[in-house]
Structures are given as structure tokens and as C-alpha cells.
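idk why but the lab printer keeps eating my pages so im just putting this in chat instead. protein + flavin-adenine dinucleotide:
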Amino acid sequence: MHENSPVAVIGAGPIGLAAAAQLLERGLDPIIFEAGPTAAAAIGQWRHVRLFSPWRFNLDAAAVRLLESNGWETPRLTALPYGGELIDEYLAPLAATPEIASRLHTDARVLAVTRQGMDKTHVRHRDATPFIVRVEQSAGEVLDYAVSAVIDASGTWSARNPLGTSGLPAIGEDHAAGKISSPLPDVVGRDRAAFAGRRVLVVGAGHSAANTLISLTELAKQEPDTRILWAVRGASPDKVYGGGDADGLPARGQLGARLRRLVDSGQVELHTGFGISTLEDSAGGVTVASGDGRTLVTDVVVPCTGFRPDLTMHRELRLNLDPAVEAPTELGPLIDPEFHSCGTVPAHGAKVLAHPEKDFYIVGVKSYGRAPTFLLATGYEQVRSVAAALAGDYVSAGAVHLELPETGVCSAGSGTSCDVPAAAVPSVGEPDGCCATQQPVLVGIPTGLTHGRSSENQSPYDAGTS
Ligand SMILES: Cc1cc2nc3c(=O)[nH]c(=O)nc-3n(C[C@H](O)[C@H](O)[C@H](O)COP(=O)(O)OP(=O)(O)OC[C@H]3O[C@@H](n4cnc5c(N)ncnc54)[C@H](O)[C@@H]3O)c2cc1C
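predcted complex ->
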């Protein structure tokens, strides 16, 4: 850390703002760059969607302390806020506190991060050299900021996965871009005109798809010509139907159960095993073809295909990423959706999130790379730990803990966090530590679950790891 230089925080979403609050409590000086015109610009795209976790899991402790010192009143902790309410009642007031507002640059998109005067290949004095954060301001002006550390909380919203099954855009996807909506359109509100009375194909098997499909059935009640198609790549949509009554986040369980009823009643036309290979845009609509030769003709496609991290801005940094998930190497195996369909992930902080590039961290939903199971509470613990580490308090940085609801959405047939040895994930009230319990659990970094980590980075934290 270079004394008196600020710590750059990239992105003023919930995790970036929480990082700023945590840094301020540690006596560090954050400078926050937000690409959008206001804080929480990404959540602004899904204001109409209700969160499935209640307020008490959606607030960061340091942010709450800062807000309360500025006269803020806590929302009802058991209520489930809409994305818009999360902004209006929490994130916008947080961004408006004098402590944050004076350090927040909006319409400021970070283009790249590097070390001052050296590219990625240079080793000498690397750790002692300030970072340079290159920022494009709204007027097109580009400025370089020298900072002591960088926390990237820029999310993944701007980089959705393509519709094609192989990780590449389907052939014709780019050409049909005008018929492909944003990932979570407000089909009964802001974006209604694009969907009313039209054929709509929703692609994907996650909660965004479930939300959009349910909203489309609401629209179809008022606009009966609206036809709702749903394509999933897998053989079954069970993963989306989820834990039902067993889900520790009841709102999420209800979402899946409701969708199942809509499919069973024929209001949503489900196509399973539909891996998209091509899109052909013509005057009659977009013809979407699967690899096995089936076709669906639609007016608009909603791509609920998930997100991936955009890492181009870190080209000059030394990162250590899981080759599959693109999360920090040690975190990857804990969240890999191929093996882990539960939302519950062991608490983790600066140690797990560290890269060979000293004092550089990716946090928030971006830290999960391509894994879809990120929860705000996890991110708040990440930034608490990272701020402690940047302040040199390695004991506090290593003493990670987290209270999260069990999700109850482990899918049968694939690996889940049930695979985690029970002793590694202590739970309250149930013996198997995973899907069966609806009780909140306290979890720590499980010993023996770490993969591929070089030992030299571990020492500062080991004393405090619980
Ligand atoms: C529909 C939906 C519902 C969800 N519901 C829940 C829930 O109920 N409970 C829960 O715990 N989690 C939920 N999540 C998951 C997660 O908590 C959210 O995605 C959350 O917004 C992640 O916060 P973040 O700060 O990491 O990223 P974001 O909220 O995406 O914030 C990133 C910010 O960085 C900015 N940015 C991006 N690129 C740049 C750049 N180059 N330079 C500067 N700024 C940049 C963006 O404009 C944005 O403001 C939900 C997610 C979605 C999509």
C-alpha cells in the first residue's frame, strides 16, 4: 500500500459501495468509478424484478453504519425488495452520503488497469509500484489515476453469455441483434411494446428466465395474442423449478413452483434439449434452430443465458483464475456450477480472492466468474475482508464468517455442495449440512477444500481463518 494514495473501486453497485464504506471505516481513501450515470446502474436495468433474499441479507454492515450516521432508517428487514427499492431505499442514499458522494465519479468507465511505467512482464519493484487506472469520462476524455490498490466490483451485467451452445454466438446471432432483447426486459412495464401480442422466445434455465416467463404470462392475460416459448438446453427444467417448499429463500422456491404450473397448464410452451446453433432473421421473424434440426419462429428472443466476466481491462495484470469458471483459482472449485448447484458457498475473503498482482482484488458477482450463484451477503463479507487486508489487519481479513440461508435447490443428478464433506460445512439443525435444512448456517473456509493454491500467499491470513 502506498500511503496517501487512494484505493480505486471499480463499479458503484452494492458491492462496490460496500467496499467504499468498509475502506472508509479502515481509514483508507476510496475513489469510486461508475460507468453509469448513477450508482447501481446495472440494477437499474432490473428495477422491476423482486429479489428473493430479504432486506436483512441485502445490507452491508459498514454501509448501514455510514447511512445511520447520516440519519437513514432501516427498511423492514424481512421484506423482499424490488431492484428499484434496493436502489431507492439503500444504494442511492448510500451513494449520496457526503463521504461517498465526494469520492464517486459517475459516467466514468474504467478502460484498463496496469502498474505505473511497467507492463505485465516486468517483475522488479512491481509490488511497490502504484497502479494506474485508465478512465473514460462521459465527454470522451480519458484520464489516468494513480492508486495504491484496486478493487474491481464492476459486475458482469454488460457481458451476457451468447445464445449459441458452444460458448460462441450462434451463427446469425449478431445479425439478429435487433430482435434480441436485454436479459431481463420489463415486459409489463417499460419494454411492453416490444412484447405485447408477439411471439417471444425465452432462452435459458435460471431465475431470470423464470421471472421473465411469469411476467410474460401476466402480459398475455391483457394481450392474448402474446405467445410464450421457452427453450432450455438441458433435458429437464427441474433446476429452474428448484427447491420449492424446501428452498431456504422461500420467494425463490415459489418462483420455480409457479413456473412449473404455467408450463403444465400450457401457458408456456417448453422445448427441452434445445441447444441453439443458428438464428436466421427474416421479414417473417427470427428462425431459431437447434443442433438436432428443430426450429422455432419468434419475433423477439430474450437471452437469459447468464453472464461472464469481462476481463479485458486487466490484460496487463497478473491474474490467477480458474480455467473453467474464471473466478479466482481457489474460489473456482467451490462455486463451479458443473459440480455445485447450491447457492451456499463457504465464507471467503482476501486470501481466497488474492491474485499474484498484490493489492488487486475482483469482488462481487464478477468474482464468481461464470458461476450464477452469487449472493450479496457473500460479497459484503468479501469486501469486509479485503478492506481489512489492505489496511494490514490480516487477522480480521482471515477471520471470515457468513450467515446465509441454505438454498434447498441442489439439483438431483449433478454434483452439488452436498458433495462437500458434512464436517467442512457446519450447519445448524440438520446433519447433512446442505439441502435439507432451511435454517441459516454459519460457515467458514473449510479446510481441505482449497485447490491449487501456492503456499507463499497463505501465511498472512492463516492465523485468523475460522
Ligand atoms: C435479477 C437478479 C436478481 C438477483 N437477486 C438477488 C437476491 O435476491 N439476493 C442476492 O443476494 N443476490 C441477488 N442477485 C445477485 C447479485 O447480488 C446481483 O447481481 C448484484 O447486483 C451484484 O452486485 P455487484 O455490485 O457485484 O455488481 P453490479 O450490481 O452489477 O454492479 C456493478 C457496477 O459496476 C458498473 N460498471 C461495470 N463496468 C464498469 C467499468 N468498466 N467501469 C466502471 N464501472 C463499471 C456497473 O454500471 C454497475 O453499476 C440477483 C441478480 C440478478 C441479475
